[in-house]
Amino acid sequence: MIDFRNVKKVYPNGTTALDGINLHIDDGEFVFIVGPSGAGKTTLMKLLLREERVTSGRLIVDEFDLVKMPERKVPYYRRQLGVVFQDFRLFPNKTVFENVAFAMRVVGEPASVIKKRVPTILSIVNLADKYNCYPTELSGGEQQRVALARALANNPRMIIADEPTGNIDPKMSLEIMNLLIKIHKRNKTVIVVTHEKTLVDYFQQRVVTIRDGRIVDDRMGGMF
Predict the structure, then answer these.
(1) Most-buried pick from 1, 26, 137, 163 (CB within 10 A)?
(2) Which among 10, 1, 14 has a CA at the least distance from the CA of 53?
């Protein structure tokens, strides 16, 4: 459950990025966040990741109050999230297996668990045969699938994908979105920030439109 209650974010230079956002997302929902450049989409994601703090209002994610949360609890909170970025952010000197395993090692998973779980995750994203490859040996779409596998590594409650198809071709974009739908059907909350109208219209999920720091539309289906 995600609950933005009259959330406002003003940056130190005086820029108001979000101006009174009210948004509720239930567990297990799939939501597109759309809007023009500068609308506030990135700021909304940064608040969810606790990379930025709310200026006023409340932001609740499950049992976490992100406004009152002390810094020491932020790493624990972030373990509940799987994040996929436009630029993949893979380690170039690590294999596919090692890139996915890294996320598990960070939280202290034993080697025996990692050895068993990583191949399972790679199968979900159709990369079981690429486990020993390096990122430079993969296409852009394959690299994004590795990033998605890494986001799934610690069985997060929620997947946040920030422009996940921005650096790949239309065919691969469709494949990545189909994988996100597949993950959503595993009872995961999925939030996708995108500017790709064709994909949003095609997948017919909930669409929240932000413009000038405010939600101007919230509906099921495409058409933004």
Answers:
(1) 163
(2) 10
Q: Is 73 helix (H, G, I), strand (E, B) or coil?
A: helix
Give the Cα separation of 101 and 103 in Å (integer): 5
pTM, to two decimals: 0.91
Tokens of 162: 């920030």
Tens of pLDDT, residue by residue over 2-46, are 999 999 999 999 999 999 999 999 999 999 999 998 899 999 999
Residue-level pLDDT at 85 = 84
- Residues 125, 104: Cα–Cα separation, whole Å: 17
161-214 pLDDT tens trace: 988 888 788 888 888 999 999 999 989 999 999 988 888 988 999 999 999 999
Helix runs in the chain, H state only:
41-48, 74-78, 96-106, 111-124, 140-152, 170-184, 197-203
Question: Is residue 57 exposed (0-12), middle (13-18) or buried (19+ Cβ within 10 Å)?
Answer: middle
Decide: 178 and 172 in contact? Cβ < 8 Å.
no
The letter for the amino acid at 43 is: T
Is the four-CA dihedral 183, 186, 188, 189 of positive or negative sign? positive
CB atoms closer than 10 angstroms to residue 211: 16
Token pair of 145 as six digits? 């699938």
Q: What is the rounded (10 degree) CA torsion for 33, 36, 39, 45?
A: 40
- Look at residues 62, 18, 66 and name the one whose alpha carbon lies nearest to residue 41: 18
Identify the residue whose tokens are 């609890």.
73
201 in Cβ contact with 222 (< 8 Å):
yes
